[in-house]
Amino acid sequence: MVELIDGSENVSVHGIFNWILLLTIFSVIVVIGNYIGYKHPIADSLIGMAILSLITLVGVWMERELPLNISSIIYISVIGIALAFPSMPTSDAIIHYVSQIELLSIVTVFLAYVGIGMGKSWGEFKAMGPRAIIITVLVIASTYLGSAVVAHVILTLTGVSV
Amino acid sequence: MIWEWIFIPDNDGQVEHIYREKTDKRILKKNPWRDYRLHVTVLILVIIAELIGTIKIPITKDVAITIMPLIYTIVLGLVFYLAKPITWIQRKQARIAEGAMMLFIGVLIAKLAVSSGQSIHLIFEMGPALILQELGHLATILVLPIALLLGFKKEAVGMTNSIGREPNVAVVVDKYGFNSPESRGVFAIFIIGTVIGTIFISFLVTFSLSFLPLHPYAFAMASGVGSASMNAAAIGPTLAAFPGMETQIEAFAGFSNLLSFCVGIYIVIFIALPLTEKMYNWLEPKIGRESITAKKGDDE
């Protein structure tokens, strides 16, 4: 079933309204999970999620509106780092409220959507089977051993003794 | 020019653009928030998951299987989609969930970015080893030829560019789109890593400590692989192996994991993914096998 809608429409007030509503729904679910799982105060967590949602909104908006082929991830990262940079006047407040949100709280809600969205690809996942398990094991082993060896070489070169 | 190489790779700009339009169609024009049953279902899944909390099943003194709430929600979400009696989570909702997910990745990235800005002085204070060992994670790319020999195609790019944890999944999905082979690859690594990663790394660390003559700090730094549960699993045997150095090992392991989450994501975006793609384009014609995943044209 092909959707007969072209992608030429610009970001409208209506579109931004939808983004804000979605981020609000997401924020409320994260804050509830954050409260149940980590007992962080609800009011502060809501402000934390409002900050993160606002950063996201600006980043997503910039990706679509600015004439550069830069992913929203980069915009969002730069805004987030800049706001929390120690010498910035915003940093204390940003860090206080955002630290009320556990990364794992966000991930837990995010992965519920991923799980539902993933259902469509279930057949392909099953097809991956034992080969994917072999690759996963090798990837974990190489990432661990890779950084252990590099760390060891640099420590030896810089003369850090045991 | 370096910026072109980073941001405008040969063919990917177009792919990303098409994908972005698709996401916009789904979440901008379909008023996805009106599908309240999807969001209420997610809320219920999250409440169930957080109430159960983290479960640890000890196997030996150092090894325990850790099952975290995020695993319940991803599995339950999938089960809800697949279960026949649950009629309100169907293909349409899955599509909306995908579109919404693309927006929610931003929140995840924003949280990581704030942590990066906050801990930027640690990045300067810690020795060169702590930062450079992050480049050691690029060793995953060495697995790419094996993946190709096993019959993976573009999935291999998603599988071997990194350890495939949450931030890596976010980066790959953002770059290639949810339905791309690259994303299926990184999702496969993520799911398998979530289930077996913690146990596997415990044995791997125990084995490495016994057989590799490396600096104790190197083992401590290496345990920060970018996954909190895997980090915890890796520290246990390391502490046991070097009695009297607990404080240093814990400090290095903690900082290293923080770096993996803060800096690791940029290493993946700027170095690992472009490098993996180049390796793929070079090796695939040489050693690529018949694709093992059948093409399915059911994206729309």
Model description:
The complex is a heterodimer of chains A (162) and B (300). Chain A is an all-alpha fold. Chain A is built from six helices and no strands. Chain B is an all-alpha fold. Chain B is globular. At the A-B interface, helix 1, helix 2, helix 3, helix 4 and helix 5 of A face helix 2, helix 3, helix 4, helix 5 and helix 7 of B.
Keywords:
heterodimer; A: 162 residues; mainly alpha; 0% strand; extended; disordered N terminus; B: 300 residues; two-stranded antiparallel ribbon; 15 helices; 3% strand; globular; disordered C terminus
How is the secondary structure organized here?
The complex is a heterodimer of chains A (162) and B (300).
Chain A: H1 13-38, H2 42-65, H3 72-84, H4 91-98, H5 103-118, H6 122-157
Helix pairs in contact in A: 1-2, 1-5, 2-3, 2-4
Chain B: H1 2-7, H2 12-28, H3 36-52, E1 55-58, E2 64-67, H4 69-82, H5 91-118, H6 120-125, H7 128-132, H8 144-149, H9 155-160, H10 166-176, H11 181-211, H12 216-222, H13 228-241, H14 246-262, H15 264-287
Helix pairs in contact in B: 2-5, 3-4, 5-10, 10-11, 10-15, 11-13, 12-14, 13-14
Mean pLDDT across residues of chain A:
82
User: What are the segments of chain A in which pLDDT stays under 50 over at least 5 consecutive residues?
Assistant: 1-11
Report the major sheet of chain B.
2 strands, antiparallel
* Shape annotation of chain A: extended
Helix-and-strand structural type of chain A? mainly alpha
Strand elements of chain A, count: 0
| Tally of individual helices of chain A | 6
How many helices of chain B in DSSP terms? 15
Q: Greatest contact pair?
A: A-B, 112 and 144 residues
State the order of secondary-structure elements of chain A, H for helix, E for strand. Answer: HHHHHH
Distance between the termini of chain A: 64 Å
Task: Average the pLDDT over all residues of chain B and give the rounded result.
Answer: 77
Beta-strand share of residues of chain A = under 5%
| Overall helicity of chain A | over 70%
- Count of the separate structural domains of chain B: 1
The amount of beta strand of chain B, in percent, is under 5%
Order of SSEs of chain B:
HHHEEHHHHHHHHHHHH
Rg from Cα of chain A: 21 Å
